[in-house]
Amino acid sequence: MSVIAIAVAAESGVPIFSRKRGNNDNIQFSTIASLHGINMFTKCHNLSLLNTKVDNGTILWKEYCKSITLIGIATGGLECDLELLLSCIYDSLVFFIGKKELENLKNIDQIKRDLRQCYPIIDYLLESLDPNSLPRSTIVLDSIQSILCPQAQQLQQVLDNYAQTVTGRWACLSIHGHLVATSSDFCELDAREARLLLLLAAAQDGVPLRDTLVYLPLMSPNVAFRAVTCKLLADVYVLVICGATPPLSQIDEIVLQCWEGYAQIIKEAKLVYPRNFPMSVSFDPALIGVLLININKRRCVFSRHLHGSNQKSRVMSGVHRIDILRTFFITTARDLAPELKVEGDNKDILDGTVSETYWCSEYHKCHAQRSGNYLCCALYAPTVPNHTMRLLTNQILQDISTNKEIFW
User: Fold this and answer.
1) Which string of DSSP letters, residue by residue, matches 298-333?
2) What is the mean pLDDT of residues 320-331?
3) Is the pTM of this model over 0.85?
4) Euclidean distance between the first and the last CA atom of the chain, given in angstroms as a whole number
5) Disulfide: which of 97, 177, 178, 374 matches 147 by Cβ 3.0-4.6 Å?
């Protein structure tokens, strides 16, 4: 199981970077040149090379801005979301150096140096596809992995006050790389931009305070914003977009003023992880994994710790549960929400009358149901009858919709 992402200049074929995750050897220059040559050969004949199958995997080519080609190589089951991965990687390139720089590529050596700051986020994206890379693994690559905690609404008020104090906007709080609370105006951002900001906070590596110039791929691809990230507690970060002022030294003082009195609330919110759902939401013992998606907000909540940390599943490992739910969602359940259709996906779109689907196997069962703005994918033990699955999934959706402790 491995995934490799390569960037080359579209015209010259000069390698810009190569990143990998898994047990593959490093890609040699001659191999990169061959992969680019295949793509150039098809372009010379007015053809578009989309992808090709290799032993136990896929190679995919995707050109952006007519200046940069991303090549993805995935094996061992990771190829199902490869095109989406390349799209996320391109967004991260724009996020750090801007679209205009990518379009020009006048000085490739300088571009190579500038793009080194992208590596932590690119590596994070690659690792997130590997179910073995807990806790970084994710299921929905284009959604914002979140935690639903009772403290979210109160934390939103603190975020609004903090953003106003630093004369900024678009603030968010993350715990263990999961979105917990946002400022009131955070919904103005596209989900792709919001996810990049969350990844920026997750890639801080313990730095207590840092500011970074970032470009928002959709809202402002050519004009940079200042993103200030601050570590509040272990694995807890707050990020805000603000102007050139105030300086970092003053922001450090503002953080203390705004957040010092809310340390206990943040600690209580941390306790929700890794269950990721408030304790007021109960789950039947037959349920061994759940993925909940808020379709409009592009936020998802995944949990494999539904019944307390001391109760271990005898059915399958946590890694296996992540892998099954991801495959079920990408290949089947995503069709229940046409709004989540991935660009370039040629699968037929359901007409909206289908609201549920399921898988059954000797070792597990999966059931997905859509209700309004929510899509729930549930993983069950193989002994659970089909009609019981439907009842339990429907009950989860009802509980989520009516629970007053849940605030997105």
Assistant:
1) TEEEEES-TT-TT---SS--HHHHHHHHHHHHHHTG
2) 89
3) yes
4) 34
5) 178
